[in-house]
Design a protein that fits this description.
Layout: E1 5-9, H1 18-28, E2 32-34, H2 37-45, H3 50-60, E3 63-64, E4 67-70, H4 78-97, E5 102-105, H5 114-131, E6 134-138, H6 149-158, E7 165-169, H7 170-175, E8 191-196, H8 223-232, E9 238-241, H9 246-249, H10 253-268
Parallel strand pairs: 1-2, 1-9, 2-3, 4-5, 5-6, 6-7, 7-8, 8-9
Length: 269
């Protein structure tokens, strides 16, 4: 059995309804799931209930390892910042109710002062401590500021909080102009979750968008080296299949995620 927890990020099989995603993930053999706050909220707004959702997770044998995401917390000011923090609290409470240990803190698109971002992330960490969930710092390769492992780790480490973590992702490590070996600078217990996917040869990887990601093993990323690096740093957490590929969204979701777990299982041994 692998030392990693194989996880499905629910974006991989949009627009499948949330409860169907959970059932299919369990049937395919995943042991964890990573939903998005907005889809959980939409499910509740459409008449679903949290007890029903938690029962579905239990029936499928799935644990929630992370929820996505907190937005706007770096650059907002004044009254707007207070509103943003209220929304962050709501999202954190939702994650905590689902039993998730982590919630992703997404960066803004613009260049930001990393010192200021660190102060704001420490603020999120304190709120999370009160609610019972830990924000994890995400980097996004297509933004102008916090777009690589180094930036995200600078923020997390800069809080001085030993619980502060980052989220890493194959696509974003390459798209942000970095290297997959950048992961070696972060201790394994400071990575909350690892998103796995693959990067096609075209268009230029430095210009790609989320939807350009392809199924694991169908691109040019050195995925065996990625897994070796995770083992080197002592990472033992979830490996979450995260894709936004519209061609895959049009296919049978059960087929897509079965193929995903098969190739990831083969990769991790």
């Amino acid at each position: 059995m692998s030392e990693f927890t194989l996880c499905l990020n629910t974006s991989t099989i949009r627009p499948t309804p949330l409860l169907d995603k959970i059932r299919l993930a369990g049937e395919a053999g995943y042991r964890a799931i990573e939903p998005w706050n907005d889809e959980v909220t939409a499910y509740l707004d459409q008449g679903g209930t949290m007890p029903e959702l938690k029962r579905s997770l239990a029936d499928a044998g799935l644990k929630v390892v992370s929820v996505i995401a907190l937005h706007g917390w770096v650059t907002s000011q004044g009254v707007e910042h207070a509103r943003v923090l209220d929304d962050c609290r709501r999202r954190m409470a939702q994650a905590a109710e689902l039993g998730s240990p982590y919630i992703v803190a997404s960066p803004p698109r613009e260049v930001v002062d990393l010192g200021r971002a660190t102060e704001r992330f420490a603020e999120l960490m304190q709120i999370g401590k009160e609610i019972g969930v830990i924000p994890s710092m995400e980097f996004l390769g297509f933004v102008d500021g916090i777009k690589d492992v180094k930036s995200a780790w600078t923020i997390a480490e800069g809080t001085g909080d030993p619980r502060a973590t980052i989220v890493a992702d194959v696509f974003h490590m390459i798209r942000g102009g970095g290297q997959i070996d950048d992961l070696l600078q972060v201790p394994g217990d400071r990575v909350a979750n690892f998103h796995i996917n693959d990067v096609p040869a075209t268009p230029d990887p430095l210009t790609q968008k989320d939807e350009d990601r392809v199924m694991v093993g169908e691109g040019i990323a050195d995925l065996p080296r990625v897994i070796a690096n995770l083992r080197t740093i002592g990472y033992r957490g979830p490996i979450s299949l995260e894709l936004f590929n519209r061609a895959l969204w049009a296919q049978d979701p059960a087929t897509v995620i079965r193929r995903g777990i098969e190739v990831i299982s083969s990769l991790v041994g």
